[in-house]
Each structure stands twice: as structure tokens, then as C-alpha cells.
Amino acid sequence: MSRKIDPIKKMAELLKSGATMLAETCPVENCNLPLFKLKSGEIICPVHGKVYMVKTEEEVKEIEEEITIRNILDKLEHRVLEIINSYTEETLSSPDELIGWLEVLERLMKIKSYIREKQS
Predict the structure, then answer these.
(1) What SS3 class is residue 90?
(2) Which domain does 39 fall in, by range?
(3) How many CA atoms lie within 13 A of 23 on its CB side?
(4) pLDDT at 86 over 60
């Protein structure tokens, strides 16, 4: 059962949280709601979420690369979490094995954090 988003309520919440309403509107067909810039610099539509603003073909390529990298990191993080969750006392051959996976997870989180900081 999906919940329908009340755009007016969402816009009010965004403004209360310190977001800035922009003059540009959502590029999704038939949406036309104003876009909002969050304090983090991210631009979002109250209904459709994150929106990328591009002016050149070069920017499109950069954003496509960024999305690909994020997707890969997200999938990798998800897989590492599955592996960590699958460990029980019976399957854990050595604590070093689990520690190794936790280190992989920590490195992934550092990479994702670095990417977020770079974009700010």
C-alpha cells in the first residue's frame, strides 16, 4: 500500500527545515512543483526527491558517472551487510574473518562520506 505524498505539506516541512525554494520547477512531466535547495546543497522536488540540474553535456556525463559510482558503492555496502548479518557463532571460523568484513564496511562508509563532502 503506497502513501500519496501531500506536496503542500512536504513543501512546508522543507521550508521549516531551512530549505530554500528555487525559481526552477521539477523537470518530471506534469509535476511543475518548485524545487528546493537543502542546506547540504542538494536540490530536491517535494514529490520526486533528488533532482540534478545540468547545463552542459559535460555535466550530464559527470552526473551519470557519479550516479554509477554511488550505485556500485550502495550495492557493495548492501552485500557486505548481508555477509556480516549471515555470520553466527557456528559459521564464524575466526573473529578475524568478521573483523575483515567490518573493515571493508568502514572503508565503504569513508568513501561515501568523502564523496558527500566533495559535493558540498
Answers:
(1) coil
(2) 7-50
(3) 0
(4) yes
